[in-house]
Amino acid sequence: MNGDPRLYSILKELNISFDYYAHPPVATIEDARKYWKDIEATHCKNLFFRNHKGDRHYLVIIEHSHDLYIRDLEQRLKQGKLSFASDHRMMKYLGLTPGSVTPFGLINDKEKHIHVFLDENLKKARKISFHPCINTASIVIAFSDLEKFLQYTCNTFEYLKLYD
After folding, report:
1. Is residue 133 within 8 Å of 100, Cβ to Cβ?
2. Terminal Cα distance for the chain, rounded
3. Any idea what the Cα angle at residue 59 is, between residues 109 and 134, rounded to 5°?
């Protein structure tokens, strides 16, 4: 299986079952849609941001077909202007490369620095899919297991209504 072997060990330790789907590398949602068409799950867009000072980082998870209004999120957070985190920051905090952003990268956030925002609409999902720390596969887990995983990482997380 592609991806971080530690992730699979953690999923086993947490008793999280998953379905694994290998596919060619996908760098964008548009590319990934080709391979997701037969996978029954809610597919997500995972966006990694930093605040204007660069001292706070956020992982925002929304359903892949929706747009995130960054200005709206900036106003809610009151952290100033948000921008996409650099490739360097992505590697430093998540241990990931561009195109592979996933909440599973939180296993690499030793300082529990990243705060996670999940769109509350995702609570309706029965199953949800993410890359296993590499963009050459997707794994599907139960939504309740995503919450279990986030509790395991000890990163702070919360739900926000990010779209209607």
Report:
1. yes
2. 36
3. 70
Number of folded domains in the chain? Answer: 1
Range of the domain at 26: 5-160
Q: Provide the whole-model pTM.
A: 0.94
Q: How far apart are CA 41 and CA 44, in angstroms?
A: 9
Residue 30 has a pLDDT of 87
Q: What is the pLDDT of residue 39?
A: 92
Average pLDDT by stretches of 10, the chain with 164 residues: 92 97 90 88 95 94 90 83 96 95 97 95 96 95 97 96 76
CATH number of the domain to which 76 belongs: 3.90.960.10
Q: Are 108 and 153 in contact (CB under 8 A)?
A: no
